[in-house]
Write a structure and sequence with these properties.
homodimer; 540 residues; alpha/beta; 4-stranded antiparallel beta sheet; 17 helices; 12% strand
């Protein structure tokens, strides 16, 4: 149900769209400017460009549009005027309108729908109206009142937070559904970039070409088309040479870890060593599937292989390209050391979760490319396209190939066919690599915004792992923060900002810190969220 | 790559389509009939209706089209003339062409693509050209040579068959990929009926409406939209009242069984009793997940509850609406007896795998509707829409709701979102019920064809469970067949026909029998396949 519309603001919906404006763009305003002003105005949202600073018209227009979406004047599904039309009405250059639309598209609030024009596709996540925070460009008219509102603790009593108890199995569901104005939890790419039109085109082609038998039961290892596409993708992007027959399509890295844990357990392996700090989520999955997870320290060169050797573990889960959550890259000497450990009979599970997102140099090669016999490689589209697709891939080492195929068969008889075939087309057509290039540019801007915001608002913090990925980690020295980081994360959530405390991801004592995702948020949101954290730090 | 075209037969492909014929249908033939004949002819495939018997023109045309698809003159992707055009060219009624197109559509070889016309979407599964066998209508011109070919053992040595050894974990993959001219293995609905256009329309709507956050991680229990749609579906079609919050979306019944087995194992339950005979596939899944599967006999009223009680098992897997493979319905007294067993603390796992496909009366109510506290209900779209979608649902009893949610979370974090949302639209719009009505009519015709063929070609066989479902079972008395049914299934496969031996599904000695799927095959294929089995029986 669309939110109620204001009486005095005409709303562009598909059925109410004024024909003269949308079908035939007016090269000049339909009426003369009102006397006494040289600025244009538009009936649309009763915009008057006289309200905007000359250097900040795009900012102004973006802010007006955000307000209109937030307060329901532009409900989801409504259509915006063509950029030429609105630019002509407002007496601004078309670039101003294009830029404003682009920003809301980047937010995920607008989407271009080809000949259908630009449509409102989502309201802000928070129920409260979101107002724009200053960008790092310094051209935004700062709305001090709204900023003050964001920085002050809300007047309602604190809601229960996911940080009240040690994290249980539901922790990520609790955190995901906790309301927040700015979600800086790590692990998400920019979801607004999902290529909806390309996906639909590929789906149409798949549905046209698929023989009827393709709707039946299939190979539990995945469709040949996707296994081929993944093998090609890994060759192009990760330096891995694999035969399509070696690829096992799975329902994301989550399923991959479960299958590996279960197969190792059946093989008499009782534990998989993990990096410390290292992903809480991965550890939860391994433990659910009966694996102990002895912690191995991570330093600035990555996992400490001497400690791994000393632990006696026969298998280890590592994130060599961009360690989670510290972001360190496994150093060259350390890689060789790990290889020697594996050559002596150890099994490496390589979680290559976000290696493609590297900003300052080419991605480091996967371990799998060097030691295929001892490395079980796991990747997924969750950081490339969308977690909601639940598609990933495993390259098992030969020793476990058959056992992992059985495990996948008896888990679910194989992934669903249609999304596999659609994804194969996007991979083979170059669409996914185009998306990745767009994401790298966009994510890099967001990372830069987060680093600038951390410098401005968290002066005592040290930044880790910002050269790649979708998140960074900050730690606080004793002079920066003396409390527990779960308390800090809880206070931030109370003030509307969602983050992970570093201690969630550590099994041994760690310095207080936060793991901050930037890829899914706009620079404005990032700046605003980090400012709130700074305020919480100072007031705590 | 399309097969080579014959030089003298023009092929309709999208780019080669003659404009005058396809865009503007000619109400009369473009040229006068050749002198000396009163029959029409068409350039298309050089058809001449003079070759057809007057009462069998649709049969003749269907056969010509099948031949053209089989030998590559009509490659996959090629477009057929409009029915009006071809009817006018051939001097036949439009109904003749429509009927011929319908038959190949039912085969899965053609598909209507709206304004794009009728397209060849699949070649026959077998590499050898398939020729039409006689229908039960008796109007088909019988091609004795081709029939003889089908009935004679091939001259090549026997290929290795999936029946050489007791069935292992790969058995269904081996059987699926074994080449055969006629696949009468049970478990498939008519895949040619998959509503491609409706699916694509719903997918477009989903992609238009979905907020960006919908591409992220979601509720591991499934999207609210599909859980609501499933609750409504179960209320309308299975007499089950369930809150959407009780519904757990899973990756098909296969995953449901694995999750249940794993949760019961964690709860200290070492075994799930199963019907005997009962599904080999289900038993394999339970055993992989560490459950023993003690067999409980099935008689004409369904599972023997006295034997279940005597077994001491605390959980049982049943198929009360249409027992697999015998097809018996759990009788009223037996239902009450099973309920009392459950009320004493037993857990019933109700696999409601094909209950919607009932031909002679309304489907029997699900056990879950009577005893929600003790019944874990499992259903899926594999017999309603397509196994390749890998979507099913569980209604756990309250005792195991949380444990099964955890199991699903740590299996794969939940099913993929887009197919769930598309399916929810098809369920809520009535599209799935429309499909089900079409399938019931079509499957019923196929069932009738199979019963007629069994009477004609397997005179010693007894037919079981033909009142519902997608398959029936035949057993042979001592006078009918004295060998092993795996030998019989192996011989049938050697002669190009795929079936399940009944003994695969039995843990204790059973009379020799075959489980025969009819829903996925045309009446012609069914007749042909059963005739081959009869020939094999007589020659064995």
């Amino acid at each position: 149900m669309p939110p109620p519309c204001r009486d005095n603001g005409p709303v562009h919906r598909s059925k109410e769209r004024p024909v003269d404006r949308s079908i035939t763009p007016s090269p000049s305003p339909p009426v003369s400017p009102p006397p006494g002003t040289s600025h244009g105005s538009s009936d649309f949202l009763q915009l008057n460009v006289g309200d905007a600073p000359v250097g900040g018209r795009a900012d102004w227009l973006a802010q007006e549009l955000r307000r209109a979406v937030a307060d329901g004047r532009l409900p989801v599904g409504s259509r915006l005027p063509a950029t030429r039309t609105l630019a002509a009405d407002l007496h601004v250059s078309r670039g101003v309108v294009t830029e404003a639309y682009r920003r809301l598209t980047e937010d995920g609030q607008l989407a271009g729908r080809g000949r259908s024009g630009t449509i409102v596709v989502a309201a802000p996540v928070s129920a409260a109206p979101v107002t724009a925070a200053p960008t790092t460009m310094g051209t935004t008219p700062v709305d001090h009142q709204s900023l003050d509102h964001h920085h002050q603790p809300p007047r309602t009593p604190h809601p229960p937070t996911p940080f009240a108890a040690p994290p249980g199995p539901e922790i990520f569901d609790e955190l995901r559904t906790a309301p927040a104005r700015v979600d800086l939890a790590p692990g998400l790419l920019d979801l607004a970039a999902f290529p909806r039109a390309a996906w639909l085109r590929a789906e149409r082609a798949v549905l046209t070409d698929l023989p009827s038998a393709g709707f039946g039961y299939g190979d539990p290892r995945g469709t040949p088309a996707l296994r081929r596409a993944v093998a090609n993708w890994l060759a192009r992007n990760r330096g891995i040479r694999a035969d399509p027959d070696e690829v096992l399509i799975v329902a994301g890295t989550a399923q991959a870890l479960g299958l590996i844990a279960d197969v190792l357990h059946r093989d008499g392996v009782p534990e998989i060593a993990v990096e410390d700090p290292g992903s809480l989520g991965a550890r939860q999955h391994l433990r659910y599937w009966r694996m102990a997870t002895p912690p191995i320290p991570v330093d600035d060169d990555g996992i400490r292989v001497d400690a791994l050797r000393a632990s006696g573990a026969r298998a280890v889960l590592v994130t060599p390209a961009h360690q989670f959550p510290t972001g360190v890259v496994l150093g060259g000497a350390r890689r060789r050391e790990l290889m020697r450990w594996a050559a002596d009979g150890g099994l490496i599970v390589e979680d290559d979760y976000d290696a493609e997102h590297r900003y300052d140099r080419a991605p480091v090669r996967a371990l799998r490319s060097l030691l295929p016999e001892q490395v079980c490689y796991a990747g997924s589209v969750s950081k490339l396209l969308a977690p909601a697709l639940r598609v990933g891939w495993l390259l098992p080492p030969p020793k476990y190939r058959e056992a992992l195929t059985d495990a996948k068969r008896f888990a679910d008889l194989g992934n669903a066919a249609l999304p596999q075939l659609v994804l194969a087309r996007l991979m083979e057509s170059g669409e996914l690599e185009r998306l990745l290039r767009l994401l790298r540019r966009r994510h890099r801007r967001r990372r830069d915004a987060m680093i600038a915001a951390v410098r401005a608002h968290l002066p005592g913090a040290r930044v880790h792992g910002a050269a790649a990925g979708l998140h960074l980690t900050v730690t606080f020295g004793p002079e920066g923060y003396r409390g527990s980081d779960t308390d800090l994360a809880a206070a931030a959530l109370t003030h509307g900002v969602k983050v992970h405390p570093l201690s969630w991801h550590a099994q041994r004592p760690s310095p207080p810190g936060l793991v901050l995702g930037y890829a899914a948020r706009t620079p404005d949101e990032i700046t605003q969220g980090v400012a709130v954290i700074g305020e919480v730090l100072r007031s705590g």
